[in-house]
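User: structure tokens for this one?
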Amino acid sequence: MHDTAPGTTPEAARGSVPGAMTLDTLPDGSRIWLFAAGRPFTDEERAGLDALLTKVREKWAIKQPGMCGCHEFVLDRFVVVGADESRGIIDGCSVDAMMNWLMRLEAEAGLRLVDRMVVHYRGPDGAPRSVSRAAFAALAKSGEVTADTHVFDTTINRIEAWRGGHFERPVSATWHAKAFL
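Assistant:
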């Protein structure tokens, strides 16, 4: 069972579809989307996201028969959505629909999931933290964030990058080094 990115602790839960594909079983070449909350999910938010993402995958399968996918919760503040594109490509309308539903859920729940202006990293205590880019730059300038601080890269979009450990890496091994150090 592969509940988290390599190098992270197994704190994730799978989407609610029994026997569904998982991040472990997605074939190479599969596309992924990473969404991050600035705080741990509540049980209600997690249930709402689970239902919404199950609905998204069901719609994908209706629109494109044979399309399979999955979603998994990671470290109680990230959700990874995967799509097996070996039988066909997820079209722009399907991606747009997923994004619109997520943004609607954000508005209803007061939860930010689609915010690329936030940096997610592990604090000195090992817990995931989220701050604005400006705050992360200030932390780097003060020395609290170093080249060895681990960051979560929500820009990866292929399963191979996920499996290769590119989700959580030291700042020095990511685009964050050039932007903030």
